[in-house]
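Handout, page 2. Input:
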Amino acid sequence: MLLRVRLAGRRPKPDKDGTIPLSWLIAQWPEGEDEPVKYWVSNLPADIPAKDLVRLAKARWRIEHDYRELKTALDLDHFEGRSFVGWHRHVTLVPPPTSS
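Output:
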């Protein structure tokens, strides 16, 4: 389900005319469920095709999965660097993951 909504309670920056801008509310509502099971909010343009909007909303899962893998495989959960040089040094010196 896709709806255009005005968000409340988030201190949104008003448009030039003083109105709160419209955002996308995306709800995953599987057949047979009483209510939606997942929600996303997006500020993508109103003319974006629905297929692209849903694809981009669900891409977040892949990004989080990859980040979790990096944290495990490269010990990024222990890395607190603040620069590319520090990050590069860390991932260069970390031994490769061992097979279990």
